[in-house]
Write a structure and sequence with these properties.
116 residues, alpha+beta, 49% helix, elongated, binds zinc ion
Length: 116
């Protein structure tokens, strides 16, 4: 029996494609619903924010320590160790793990503008 949409061979292929599209859509909807309910949990939201903050801080610190003379600009003027744009107003101390240091870490003083 032929339906109105049936056009022989190609209808089989189209059917398969429609099935893939449908499954894709279902998966996307499932992921969306899952993330929505995950975020609805306040504990998850707080944890996510903390993770993000920690991650941002670590990235900032890595950036600050990357270059050998990181705390001056091209003209030799002192700059903030994080954004490298603003003039530094104070220093912040960070501990860096060091295998050769007697206490297992060294103190790093990084100039900080207080804004970035
Ligand atoms: Zn800065």
């Amino acid at each position: 029996m032929r339906t109105r949409h049936s056009t022989g061979i190609s209808s089989g292929r189209r059917g398969a494609q429609e099935k893939i599209d449908r499954e894709d859509e279902q998966r996307r909807r499932y992921n969306r619903e899952y993330m929505r309910s995950w975020r609805a949990n306040p504990v998850n939201r707080i944890e996510e924010r903390e993770n993000r903050r920690r991650w941002q801080f670590e990235r900032k610190l890595r950036e600050a320590l990357k270059s050998p003379a990181p705390f001056t600009n091209e003209r030799g003027k002192p700059v903030c160790g994080f954004c490298r744009i603003n003039p530094p107003l104070r220093e912040i101390v960070r501990l860096q793990v060091s295998e050769i240091a007697p206490r297992g870490y060294v103190e790093l003083r990084i100039p900080y503008c207080g804004e970035c």
